[in-house]
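FAQ

Q: What does a record look like?
A: Structure on top, sequence underneath. For example:
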């Protein structure tokens, strides 16, 4: 399983080696045209500005009128030996979402995400604590947040502004995965920006290339999420019956964003 801390540190070092500068402890107050205003009063200008700050990104907040489903999540990191198998739990344990245990070399990432409208008034905290206790108490870190689960937004580009990653809704609704497709989106955006600055290529080529590479995957994932949200509202005993060796190939195709049926 991916070590996110090591992964993100490696990306930071790679970006630094290419000339990127990081302003840690700084907050963006607003973005207008080619100017970024920080909360401490400093200003920066750029010909192209990219918003990559998640679904609460200030660029998206100020210039995009996009709303969508956000699933709250809570997770912990625990020390211990949790084996090699990934665990995913559905139904009443995590209504409208799922609970997970992702094993690591010397521990695990354990978490829960739900849709509040299916939780019957019960809070995420209660679902999370009930799930965490199944795995012990050797917690080394606690975290929380939310995932955009409506799929990509209608447009990624407005003028000289671009959105990437979670800010653009680049999370697969059927499984909550966002690292890989966000990196694909970032690569396409970076290549498009270079071409734009060098030869005037339209920034909207970023959207076109994203749709060519990832549009079908995202469409399949959104379709699977809508179908799954309906299925996972059923009683747990019925969900358990539906998850069986006969349905495993279809479930796997849904989760991995493929069409559920192959027609020859």
């Amino acid at each position: 399983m991916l070590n996110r801390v090591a992964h993100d540190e490696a990306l930071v070092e790679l970006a630094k080696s290419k000339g990127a500068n990081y302003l840690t402890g700084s907050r963006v107050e607003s973005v207008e045209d080619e100017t970024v205003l920080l909360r401490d009063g400093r200003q920066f200008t750029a010909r192209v500005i990219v918003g990559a700050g998640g679904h609460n990104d200030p660029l998206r907040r100020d210039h995009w009128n996009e709303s969508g489903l956000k699933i709250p999540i809570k997770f912990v990191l625990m020390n211990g030996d949790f084996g090699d198998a990934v665990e995913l739990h559905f139904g009443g344990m995590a209504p409208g979402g799922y609970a997970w245990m992702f094993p690591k070399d010397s521990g695990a990432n354990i978490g829960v995400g739900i849709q509040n409208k299916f939780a019957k008034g019960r809070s995420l905290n209660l679902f999370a604590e009930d799930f965490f206790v199944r795995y012990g108490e050797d917690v080394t870190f606690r975290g929380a947040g939310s995932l955009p689960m409506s799929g990509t937004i209608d447009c990624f580009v407005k003028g000289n502004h671009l959105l990437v990653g979670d800010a653009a809704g680049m999370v697969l609704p059927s499984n909550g995965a966002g690292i890989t497709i966000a990196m694909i989106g970032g690569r396409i955006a970076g290549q498009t920006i270079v071409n734009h600055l060098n030869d005037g290529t339209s920034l909207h080529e970023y959207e076109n290339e994203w749709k060519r590479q990832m549009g079908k995957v995202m469409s399949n994932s959104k379709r699977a999420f809508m179908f799954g949200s309906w299925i996972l509202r059923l009683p747990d005993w019925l969900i358990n019956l539906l998850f069986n060796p006969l349905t495993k190939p279809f479930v796997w195709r849904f989760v991995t964003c493929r069409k559920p049926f192959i027609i020859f």
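Q: Is there anything notable about this one?
A: The mean pLDDT is 89.
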